[in-house]
TrEMBL record:
<feature type="domain" description="Starch synthase catalytic">
    <location>
        <begin position="5"/>
        <end position="240"/>
    </location>
</feature>
<dbReference type="InterPro" id="IPR001296">
    <property type="entry name" value="Glyco_trans_1"/>
</dbReference>
<comment type="pathway">
    <text>Glycan biosynthesis; glycogen biosynthesis.</text>
</comment>
<dbReference type="Pfam" id="PF00534">
    <property type="entry name" value="Glycos_transf_1"/>
</dbReference>
<comment type="function">
    <text>Synthesizes alpha-1,4-glucan chains using ADP-glucose.</text>
</comment>
<feature type="binding site">
    <location>
        <position position="18"/>
    </location>
    <ligand>
        <name>ADP-alpha-D-glucose</name>
    </ligand>
</feature>
<feature type="domain" description="Glycosyl transferase family 1">
    <location>
        <begin position="288"/>
        <end position="445"/>
    </location>
</feature>
<dbReference type="InterPro" id="IPR013534">
    <property type="entry name" value="Starch_synth_cat_dom"/>
</dbReference>
<dbReference type="GO" id="GO:0009011">
    <property type="term" value="F:alpha-1,4-glucan glucosyltransferase (ADP-glucose donor) activity"/>
</dbReference>
<comment type="similarity">
    <text>Belongs to the glycosyltransferase 1 family. Bacterial/plant glycogen synthase subfamily.</text>
</comment>
<protein>
    <recommendedName>
        <fullName>Glycogen synthase</fullName>
        <ecNumber>2.4.1.21</ecNumber>
    </recommendedName>
</protein>
<keyword id="KW-0808">Transferase</keyword>
<dbReference type="Pfam" id="PF08323">
    <property type="entry name" value="Glyco_transf_5"/>
</dbReference>
<dbReference type="InterPro" id="IPR011835">
    <property type="entry name" value="GS/SS"/>
</dbReference>
<keyword id="KW-0328">Glycosyltransferase</keyword>
<keyword id="KW-0320">Glycogen biosynthesis</keyword>
């Protein structure tokens, strides 16, 4: 099997820079692809956190006037990963969140910042960056979705690699006022309904969906949902029109990073045959969140962006019903400022039964998965989700909405699945107050039956949540595109 060169283009990658699941995917997939003969190099923006982490870089190209300032393309390796970094201080030399300013609002020049990333990818593809051009470009989400546009509108007579665009969340589309178009370096002929124009604005993701050779969604269920008027976020017409180009490939997690047998973040390590050791992690969770000790009741967790999509407001509104009969809840996440304030207030009101940490902490997230009984994920829609995969891996039973990748990856504990011993979690019958409370009540009943609950945990821990199967599908998709 011949080697295949792929350039992954992304706005974040774990462990260098992370705001959500996109970083976990772009961080883990390259290593999984290696066994399939795919060599991946990842192009990232030169955020301060990225540049600080790289101790040995090589300058490959200098672009003096690049979207309003000078830029360099750096080559590096980090923890076995091949990287290209677009070092453009006028665009990326900003601490904190890569997309938001200190006021919590989008940076006003985000269109230029991520158009620059896409144009840099195109220049790599054209052999204008001092590195060997890729055979395939894999662009992730709206931040990289203009890559096909630069290749299409500016690439006449130049190399054109196969282009794959992955949609991690269709709700984030990169839509900007039309006045930004003149700053993107594209010809006026690109501002049409067949190009960048989207209801009078500029649509980054819309353009990528039109022009990429192949489109993937991050689960089969989500691939179906985005082609419906309810789940398509206004882009369902394009996705139906391009249906033959759309594939659903479920995400995985890095099973070395997420491994309860070896996880240094845990108070006690364990496997599916030594579940009793989880009690030490349970105590550590209680201490960290200031919970009142409780040996028997269900200990729930939620690790989530605080946003309408994630249904965190549903949990807030149901706290009276959820926190009874010994049930407790710990929450880790950030997002909407109003929701953050409501969660802080709730933690004061339910002190000892509810613990809340606003923000994200990798160590605490591992500890919660290793010590809590169940993780609740009541998303209104969910392209794939990763926290349920971590929950399965750690014996933290997922309680999930029956949507997208959640439904694809968690086997509901209905009577037939329980009898067959294949159930790995619980599906909410409806994503509302009643459905959430009923789902948690069922979990409480199952948890009281220790042998049944441990069968659920073991089945989840033995399920395949890694990247191997999905990496094989990506490799096959790449190779079909280049005729291998």
């Amino acid at each position: 099997m011949s080697s295949l060169r792929v350039l992954s283009v992304a706005s974040e990658m774990f462990p260098l820079i992370k705001t959500g699941g996109l970083a976990d995917v772009t961080g883990a997939l390259p290593a999984a692809l290696e066994s399939h003969g795919v060599q991946t190099c990842t192009l990232l923006p030169g955020y301060p956190a990225v540049l600080r982490a790289l101790t040995d870089t090589q300058r490959m190209a200098v672009w003096p006037d690049f979207f309003g300032g000078g830029a360099r393309l750096l080559q590096a390796r980090f923890e076995g990963r091949d990287l290209l970094v677009l070092d453009a201080p006028h665009l990326y030399a900003r601490e904190g969140n890569p997309y938001l300013g200190p006021d919590g609002h989008d940076w006003p020049d985000n269109a230029e910042r991520f158009a620059a990333l896409s144009f840099a990818a195109a220049r790599v593809a054209w052999g204008q960056a001092g590195v060997e051009p890729p055979q395939v470009i894999h662009a992730h989400d709206w931040q990289a979705a203009l890559t096909p546009a630069y290749l299409h509108y500016l690439g006449e007579g130049l190399p054109r690699p196969r282009q794959v665009l992955t949609v991690h969340n269709l709700a984030f589309q990169g839509r900007f006022d039309r006045k930004v178009f003149g700053r993107l370096g594209l010809p006026m002929g690109a501002f049409t309904s067949e190009g960048l124009e989207y209801h009078g604005d500029v649509g980054f993701l819309k353009t990528g969906l039109l022009l990429a050779d192949a489109i993937t969604a991050v689960s089969p269920g989500y691939a179906d949902e985005v082609r419906t008027s309810q789940g398509g976020m206004g882009l369902d017409g394009i996705l139906r029109w391009r249906a033959e180009a759309v594939t659903g490939i479920v995400n995985g997690i890095d099973t070395e990073v997420w491994n309860p047998r070896t996880d240094a973040h845990l108070a006690a390590r364990y496997d599916e045959d030594h579940l009793d050791a989880r009690r030490h992690n349970r105590r550590a969770v209680e201490q960290h969140f200031g919970l009142l000790p409780e040996d028997e009741g269900l200990l729930l967790c939620m690790i989530s962006r605080m946003a309408d999509q994630k249904g965190t407001d549903l949990v807030l509104d149901a706290l009276d019903a959820l926190l009874k009969g010994g049930t407790r809840l710990v929450v880790l996440g950030s997002g909407d400022r109003e929701l953050e304030a409501r969660w802080r207030s709730a933690a004061d009101h339910y002190r000892g039964r509810l613990g809340v940490q606003v923000g994200y902490d990798e160590r605490v997230s591992h500890l919660m998965q290793g010590g809590c009984d169940a993780i609740v994920i009541p998303s209104r829609f969910e392209p794939c989700g990763l926290t349920q995969l971590c929950g399965l891996r750690y014996g933290c039973v997922p309680i999930v909405a029956h949507v997208g990748g959640l439904a694809d990856t968690v086997i509901d504990a209905n009577d037939a699945a329980l009898r067959a011993g294949v159930a790995t979690g619980l599906h909410l019958r409806s994503v509302n107050h009643e459905g959430l409370v009923n789902g948690v009540n069922k979990a409480t009943q199952l948890h009281a039956d220790r042998p049944t609950w441990q069968r659920l945990q073991r089945a989840g821990m033995l399920s395949d949540v890694g990247w191997e199967a999905s990496a094989a599908r990506y490799a096959a998709l790449y190779r079909r595109g280049v005729g291998q």
